[in-house]
Write a structure and sequence with these properties.
Elements (H helix, E strand, L loop, with lengths): L8 H6 L2 H20 L11 E7 L2 E6 L2 H21 L6 E6 L5
Parallel strand pairs: 2-3
Antiparallel strand pairs: 1-2
Length: 102
């Protein structure tokens, strides 16, 4: 096998609208996460993050079931804050456990 030089991300993205959409979505979710992190209790920051928005659902990822329980306690205030930032309709919060998040 021959070694291929790595291509810069920008070059890879030029050829794929699917990848462009994925990167754009991730950047939007990261921006929402940056805005919501300060609204979490200090101990929970970094252990609970925005995973995505699916239709009208804010999906939060928690590093463990314990952090997911804590996120459920904060879900109303996080949803309210996210509604002020998100351009679409948000009606509910879903929390998933994502080990290794932190």
């Amino acid at each position: 096998m021959e070694d291929r030089a790595e291509k810069p991300l920008a070059d890879t993205l030029k050829g794929s609208t699917v990848l462009q959409r994925l990167v754009r979505s991730r950047r939007i979710f990261d921006a929402l996460d940056r805005e919501l992190q300060p609204r979490l209790p200090p101990a929970a920051r970094g252990h609970v993050r925005v995973a995505c928005v699916q239709q009208d659902t804010l999906v939060l990822a928690a590093a463990s079931s314990a952090w997911a329980s804590r996120a459920r306690l904060e879900s109303s205030s996080l949803l309210e804050a996210a509604r002020a930032l998100w351009p679409g309709r948000l009606e509910r919060v879903q929390i998933i456990v994502s080990p290794g998040l932190d």
